[in-house]
Amino acid sequence: MENLKKIAQEIRKLSIEAIYCARSGHPGGSLSVADILSVLYFGELRVDPNQPQWMDRDRFVLSKGHACPALYAALALKGFFPTKEIRGLRKVNHYLEGHPDVRIPGVDAPSGSLGMGLSQGLGMALGGRYCGRSFRTYVVLGDGDMQEGNTWEAFMAAGHHRVSSLTAILDFNGLQGEGLVTAQMDYSPVMPKLAAFDWHVQEVDGHNFDQLSHALAVARAETQRPSFILAHTVKGKGVNFMENQQVWHGSSTLTDEQYHQSLQSLGA
Questions:
Q1: Nearest-CA neighbor of 211 among 36, 7, 29?
Q2: Per-domain residue ranges of the chain
Q3: 3-class SS at 147?
Q4: Pair 212, 218: CB distance under 8 Å
Q5: 205 DSSP β-pair partners
Q6: 238 falls in which pLDDT band (50, 70, 90)?
Q7: Model confidence at 165, in pLDDT bands (50, 70, 90)?
Q8: Exposure winner among 68, 77, 151, 251, fewest CB in 10 A?
Q9: Beta strands of the chain (E only): which ranges?
Q10: What's the average model confidence in pLDDT over 257-268?
Q11: The pLDDT of residue 151 is above 90
Q12: What is the fold, at CATH topology level, of the domain defined by 2-265?
């Protein structure tokens, strides 16, 4: 687990560097999802950076696409492209766009408007079933995704069709662009709703690597239902002046001082 922790910190550092160089981006959600991405890409997903289009690779969808700096960092550390490319985030004529795009090595689905990711992941999982493929599909959702009707249609459909190869992980940090989720549109309680839609549900600390790894192993072993993991996280995790501060949702410009303070907070 120590290796996963180190990788998660590298994901955070690279995310901050990307946002700093771009002069814009969403640091809060990128930092909150870093531990989840570390466990997925370096402990769970069956992917090969030398064969990004391998048909039997596991699929991954970042539905909260504004947190793409963290995804790009994970992909770079995995070997899909050099880490120095991180500095091209949001630059004109560079392939690391402000939201994931399938032209980027290692990216399986585009994102932008919230609420689309789970439906895309469900389509991939059903496609794999009908084609006799063995891959699994993972979707990371944000709080905003959970307020979209398309997401709940996908929840219902996946449960009805018993798509056990599909796992959804909620990066539940409780803050969104305009403030607290509970003040904007409270969608709790989540667990009984998903259980009613015939999902296997688990609740974990989204910064606890043992809990995340165990929950993913349990999801992998589930053969009758899709799996949902509610991961409690901290917005801006790891950077002391960003933690639980809504202002760092995005799109933020980091000053030189804030950039250096962020890296110092992350141990760089």
A1: 36
A2: 2-265
A3: helix
A4: no
A5: 232
A6: very high
A7: very high
A8: 251
A9: 59-62, 137-141, 166-172, 175-176, 179-180, 200-205, 227-232
A10: 94
A11: yes
A12: Rossmann fold (3.40.50)
Taking the C-alpha atoms of residue 214 and residue 252, their distance in angstroms, rounded to an integer, is 34
DSSP secondary structure letter of residue 66: G
Angle subtended by helix axes 149-160 and 117-130, to nearest 10: 20
Tokens 């996908």 correspond to what residue? 154
Instruction: Compute CA 178 distance to the chain's CA centroid, rounded to the nearest angstrom.
Output: 20
Amino acid making up residue 265: S
| pTM of full prediction above 0.90 | yes
Q: Where are the beta strands (DSSP E) in 32-104?
A: 59-62
Percent of the chain at pLDDT above 70?
100
Name residue, tokens 């798509």: 163
Q: Measure Cα distances from 230 to 35, 105, 164, 206, 240 in Å.
A: 14, 28, 17, 8, 24
Q: Does pLDDT of 179 surpass 80?
A: no
